[in-house]
Amino acid sequence: MKNHLLKTSDDYGTGLIRLMVGIVFTSEGIQKFLFPNERGTGRFEELGFPFPDLFGYFIGSIEIFFGLLLLFGLFTRISSVTTLLLITAAFFTTKVSVFDEFGFWAMMHGSRTDLCMFMGSLFLIYKGGGFKSFDQYYFKKYSE
């Protein structure tokens, strides 16, 4: 089971997708701390979440932690499941109301990053960490 979770190829493209998803999640998590009124606590309060302070900082921390794991390619598949769950929740809490108020195309425009992060996370669950990932190094070192 451990080998399957860590197994990956040395594919450059997979590494690029991993970096893309990792950079976006890490950046979004950091922004929840830098701009709490717009991206963190204030946003969760606007969405009607109970305990918006808790949610803002907790979700920001999760995004940073798993985003960094993806950047390094460590536990890529597990990290990608987490980012997939985060982006799915973000989509349903923020984009459904856009659809209700402004329609399909406005929702699609507003969710382009969400869609890319969703598909990127799915891809990484399937492929693993790819080129220059810690998963690749670990698998080669301990599974031969």
From TrEMBL:
<dbReference type="GO" id="GO:0005886">
    <property type="term" value="C:plasma membrane"/>
</dbReference>
<feature type="transmembrane region" description="Helical">
    <location>
        <begin position="54"/>
        <end position="74"/>
    </location>
</feature>
<dbReference type="InterPro" id="IPR051907">
    <property type="entry name" value="DoxX-like_oxidoreductase"/>
</dbReference>
<keyword id="KW-0472">Membrane</keyword>
<protein>
    <submittedName>
        <fullName>DoxX family membrane protein</fullName>
    </submittedName>
</protein>
<dbReference type="InterPro" id="IPR032808">
    <property type="entry name" value="DoxX"/>
</dbReference>
<keyword id="KW-0812">Transmembrane</keyword>
<keyword id="KW-1133">Transmembrane helix</keyword>
<dbReference type="Pfam" id="PF07681">
    <property type="entry name" value="DoxX"/>
</dbReference>
<keyword id="KW-1003">Cell membrane</keyword>
<comment type="similarity">
    <text>Belongs to the DoxX family.</text>
</comment>
<feature type="transmembrane region" description="Helical">
    <location>
        <begin position="81"/>
        <end position="98"/>
    </location>
</feature>
<feature type="transmembrane region" description="Helical">
    <location>
        <begin position="104"/>
        <end position="126"/>
    </location>
</feature>
